[in-house]
Amino acid sequence: MLDGSITITVQFVKYLNLFTEVAENLYLIMFDSYENE
C-alpha cells in the first residue's frame, strides 16, 4: 500500500515537472513572438 502511494507520488511529481517545463517553454515562445511583432 505504502509502496504504491510512493510510486504514484513520484509519477505525479515527474509529470508536474514536465508540465512546468512545457508551460515555461510555451510562455517563452509566446513572449518571444509577441516581442518580435
Provide structural commentary.
The chain is mostly helical and 37 residues long. The protein has one domain (1-37). 95% of the residues lie in helices and 0% in strands. The chain contains 1 helix and no strands. It is rod-shaped and about 55 Å long. The N and C termini lie far apart (54 Å).
In summary, what is this structure?
By secondary structure, this protein is mostly helical. The protein has one domain (1-37). It contains one helix and no strands.
Share of helix, binned: over 70%
Span of the ends, CA to CA: 54 Å
Overall SS class: mainly alpha
Strand residues, percent: under 5%
The tally of beta strands, per DSSP, is 0
Computed over alpha carbons, the radius of gyration is 16 Å
Largest sheet: none
- Our count of domains comes out at 1
| Number of helical stretches of at least 4 residues | 1
Give the topology, please.
Blueprint: H1 2-36
Question: What descriptors fit this protein?
Answer:
single chain, mainly alpha, 0% strand, rod-shaped
